[in-house]
Every structure is written in structure tokens, then in C-alpha cells.
Amino acid sequence: MKPGKPVAIIDKSLFQEICAVSEVKLRESLLNEILNHYELVIPFVLVEEVWINFGKPKESTSAAVHEMVKLLKQMTKLWMDDEMEIIFKELVRDQPIKRSPPPPKELINFALNLDPNDPNFSRWLEENWKAKKLAIDERVAEQRSLLPAGSFATISSEEDLFQKFIRRKFMETLESPERIKQLLENWLGNQFRHRHTNYKRRIEKAFGRFNKETFRKYPVTLSYILTSMFYFYAPLFRIQNSSEQEKRKIIGSAKNEQRNNITDQQYVVSALLCDRLLTSDEGMYNMMNIFKRAGFWTGETVFIDLHKDLSLQIPKLLI
Question: How far apart are alpha carbons 186 and 178 in whole angstroms?
């Protein structure tokens, strides 16, 4: 990797499209252009998504999925650690986080050894699905406790939602040690203790030292909290300003409209550690631009339109 290149993560929408290119030379050329332009990072959520597809293949995408698996196995040096583990290292172990920290070897080996025919793989898929479903079910239930289905608050823009509501609400929460500790417990506590059973006392201490004087010392944790708050509150709001007659949604509020939000959040938190996000997902493109306009990210999103020829966009749009 050449020094000075922007650090870029790629999401599954674009990675799968490149891997679906049947002509080998063209597929390799597209990947090489990306590698030449960027210090490429593979977020662990992408690995997770691909392995889920690998375990539950669809005939229409099976060739692309097998190519993705093959490439990911060759690119383990580019993998980034799971965002929850990055936060744990920063907040509980009190370790400064470098850009794109790699996963531990045990996690890489675990992923590489997953076999679709192994009952353990099926069990892992089921646990993964249940965990994300439960998280969305609980989120929607809590949203409904604030506003009934079909009712929405109105705000003038996504940036105002971020700056005037979410940032303000977070700063108000920081004023109360009990409230900020409860917030950390709700969003991090169970996951931390499930993964690190011997760290219960250190987790408790870590939550206690995250406060209005210290929170800036933990930028990844802060990114995770603000991202989680945005994905929680955005479905409760509709945008309407003086130039708009109809209210428009930021994120859908129905449960089926939120089912991918946990995965999207993981991409956002990983992208906030980098200079670029490479995507073909319009929703992800819009979300990162909201964070940028709100002043929370200085990077750029490179959007590749799947309705156009990839070779006409790569490398032309790579900035």
C-alpha cells in the first residue's frame, strides 16, 4: 500500500456487483483500479453479510457470492475488526484506536473455517438472524412508546435533526451520570458482557468514566452512540421546510423498513473511521452525506450507479 492514499471502505452493494462481472479481466481491472486509488479496507460487517449469503445461497446470486468468498479469503490483510470490538478496545481497555484496526487472528480463522455444511455454521446464522431481529423488535417497541405508529414529529432538515435534536439530546444526557450510564448499558452492556465474560468489573468502570469531561477521548464510541441515536430517532421524524408541501421520511418507521438498519449502522460506524465510502446503495450514500453535512465526517462517498456500466465509472469517479 502506498502512503498517502485515502483510506476507503467498500460495502456489499458495490463489492457484489464487481464480483458479479463475468469477464475475469474486467473484474480484476475494476478491483485493481480501486486498490490503486485507495488503501482499501474490508469492514467486518461485509464479511459477515457475505458469509450469511454463502450459508443461505440464492441461485440468482450464487456465482457472485462464491467469487466474493474467494476474494475475501485472499484479502484478509485488508479486513477491519468488528466495530463492537473496536469500541470495546477503546472504551474498556482504554486503547487509542488506529485507523482500520485488523481483527484478531482467531476471528479471521473462525470466518475462514465456516462451512455451509457444518451444523455450527447453521447455528451461527440462526443466532445472527435472531440477534438482529430482536434488536429491531425492541427498537420499534421503544419507538412506539414515544410516538404511536403513523405519528411523526416534524423538522426542517436532516441536519437540524442531527444538530438541534440528537446532538442536544446527547449533551443533555451527559449532564446526568445515571442517564449516560444507562444509555451505555442499553446499547453496549449486553454485547460487551456476552463477548467478554471476564471483564464485567472493567466494563462497569469504563461506563462510569465516560462523561461530559471525557467523552471526546473516545471518538469511536461517540460515533457509535450518535449513529445509534440517529437510526433510533430518524424514523420518528418527517422533513418539511418552507419549500416542501409534503412531508418526507428520512428512514421508514415500519418494522420491515428498519430490518436492515443494524447492518447499515455497522457500515456507517466503520465508514466514519475512513476517508471514503465506496457504495452502490443510494440509502447509504444519502446517510453518509447527512453525517458530512452535519459536520461529523470530513470524508467523501463515492456512489457507483448500478444502472450504468461499471467500467465507465471506475476509475473516473474515484476521488
Answer: 12
What pTM was computed for the model? 0.93
Q: By CB neighbour count within 10 A (0-12 exposed, 13-18 middle, 19+ buried), where does 214 fall? A: exposed
DSSP type of residue 151: -
DSSP states of 161-199 = IIIIIIIHHHHHHHT-HHHHHHHHIIIIIHHHHHH-GGG
Task: List C-alpha distances in Å: 96 to 88, 89, 105, 194.
Answer: 11, 8, 20, 23
How far apart, in whole angstroms, are the C-alpha atoms of residue 110 and residue 128? 15
* Tens-digit pLDDT profile for residues 267-298: 999 999 999 999 999 999 999 999 999 899 99
CA 7 – CA 34 distance, rounded (Å): 11
Q: Give me 183's grid cell.
A: 444509555
**Contact criterion met (CB below 8 Å) for 301 and 288:** yes
Please tell me the number of Cα atoms within 13 Å of 177 on its side-chain side. 8
What length does the chain have? 319
Task: Give how far Cα 197 sits from Cα of 135, 190, 201, 202, 205, Å.
Answer: 21, 10, 10, 11, 15
Place of cell 475488526: 81
122-140 pLDDT tens trace: 888 888 889 889 999 999 9
Q: List, in sequence order, every beta strand (DSSP E) within the chain.
A: 7-10, 39-41, 153-155, 237-239, 248-249, 276-279, 300-303
Residue with cell 465506496: 278
